[in-house]
Design brief:
It is a single chain. It contains 5 helices and no strands. By secondary structure, the protein is mostly helical. The protein is elongated.
């Protein structure tokens, strides 16, 4: 009898995991709606932070402050800016995983969304941990040249400008991917 109970439990687990006749994974429709709402809020925060920083904060800072003060302020903001994106990516991945596991989100839109979110989060992580520190180092080295009275090193300026252009392009790509994610939520089957 003990073996039969174990086999019975195994078959029940297999039915829940492998068949589509199993009931919802983590709760009812209200929970699914809550996860969907939280996912949409997360996307709104992420997209909103990109738009606000790009079109309000950065231009205002550079128009209001001296160039060296503006650069110092933006440098301080960037680590937090990218951290918001990284945290939003983590929350989005959890939400999408829950929606996918609950079969509340069609498989291909969910997989595409997971890939986009992972790419966006990875991009923000790389920009925060790799590109921005390198850009800061280049700007610091340029400032050392200027303070010592030596002529500025043109290669430092070219490299900084190339990295700046790359970071702007990647921020635009993250923004566009975020808009695609909103489109997928609206037009894919999400309960």
């Amino acid at each position: 009898p003990r073996v039969e109970k174990r086999n019975g439990a195994r078959s029940l687990v297999k039915e829940i995991v492998l068949t589509s006749t199993a009931s919802r994974c983590y709760g009812g429709a209200a929970m699914t709606q809550g996860v969907k709402w939280f996912y949409l809020v997360t996307l709104a925060v992420w997209i909103g932070s990109i738009v606000f920083f790009s079109f309000a904060v950065a231009p205002t800072v550079f128009k209001t402050l001296k160039p060296e003060d503006a650069a110092a302020l933006i440098r301080r903001i960037f680590s937090k800016y990218y951290l918001i994106g990284i945290l939003c990516a983590a929350v989005s991945i959890v939400c999408l995983g829950l929606l996918l596991a609950d079969r509340a989100y069609s498989r291909w839109p969910a997989i595409l969304s997971l890939l986009l979110v992972a790419g966006m989060g990875g991009t923000d992580l790389w920009l925060r941990q790799g590109v921005m520190p390198h850009m800061n180092d280049l700007r610091d080295r340029r400032a050392m040249f200027e303070s010592s009275g030596k002529p500025p090193d043109e290669t430092l300026d070219r490299e900084w400008k190339a990295l700046h252009r790359l970071s702007v392009q990647l921020n635009v790509a993250v923004l566009l991917c975020g808009l695609v994610l909103v489109f997928l939520v609206v037009y894919a089957r999400v309960v």
